[in-house]
């Protein structure tokens, strides 16, 4: 497995610390603003299948977003780890009364539905946690490659097929000037922060 450069490692450390240092009231305001932005751009529509995540310490918390998506009539799902050794996860249904347990990373996931995996291409939208982002849609995650593996069908920018749409949720302080994209990295279609909605211009999407 390719190892991250010392610069990438340092950036992850710095950005995670920044995220954790946000005061609770600022965090709540930011989460409300992000929820409002997602509603404004009509991410949540009846019948849409939307993958959310159950936040761990420091990540943008989705409690309000999950409630809004359910009210709007979306069908929700969440990641569930299938192999720690291979670093793989699948998306499974997330029912309001789902029993949850903590996985090896301390992240909550539904207990009973491991076999009900949903193909990534059957999802309309995936909301992704972000450690760092840049204006080209490049994303730094926690560094284990779970999302990059689960969404690898979306890596090929030349493909016309663009499902699911990948929406990174971040505090604006997570922005960095430039993140070097590795061959396995799946870029974001949209980044939503408490300040703005960033739609990266994809050079690879333009006709030659
Ligand atoms: N599709 C893939 N096939 C094989 N290895 C992969 C794939 N995607 C990622 N990896 C491996 O996973 C490791 C971690 O990837 P990366 O540093 O991009 O993590 P990340 O994007 O921060 O994590 P995540 O995707 O979980 O948010 C890389 O070193 C890479 O070798
Ligand atoms: Mg990556």
Find the count of extended strands (DSSP E, 2+ residues): 11
Number of helices: 4
Distance between termini? Answer: 33 Å
Estimate the strand proportion: 15-25%
| Known CATH architecture | 3-Layer(aba) Sandwich
Shape: globular
Ligand types: adenosine-5'-triphosphate, magnesium ion
- The helix/strand order is HHEHEEEEEEEHEEE
**Structural class by helix and strand composition:** alpha/beta
CATH topology: Rossmann fold
Note poorly predicted spans: none
Instruction: Give the oligomeric state.
Output: single chain
Cα-atom radius of gyration? 16 Å
Strand order of the largest sheet: 3-2-1-6-9-10-11
Largest sheet: 7 strands, mixed
CATH superfamily placement: NagB/RpiA/CoA transferase-like
Query: In CATH, what is the class?
Result: Alpha Beta
Number of domain modules? 1
Helix content: 10-25%
Question: Would you give an account of this structure?
Answer:
This protein is α/β, with parallel strands linked by helices. It has a single domain, classed as Rossmann fold (3-Layer(aba) Sandwich). The chain is built from 4 helices and 11 strands. The strands form 3 sheets. The protein has a 7-stranded mixed beta sheet with strand order 3-2-1-6-9-10-11. A two-stranded antiparallel sheet has the order 4-5. 33% of the residues are buried. The protein binds adenosine-5'-triphosphate and magnesium ion. Adenosine-5'-triphosphate binds at residues 1-2, 4, 140-149, 152, 182, 184-185. Magnesium ion binds at residues 141, 148, 185.
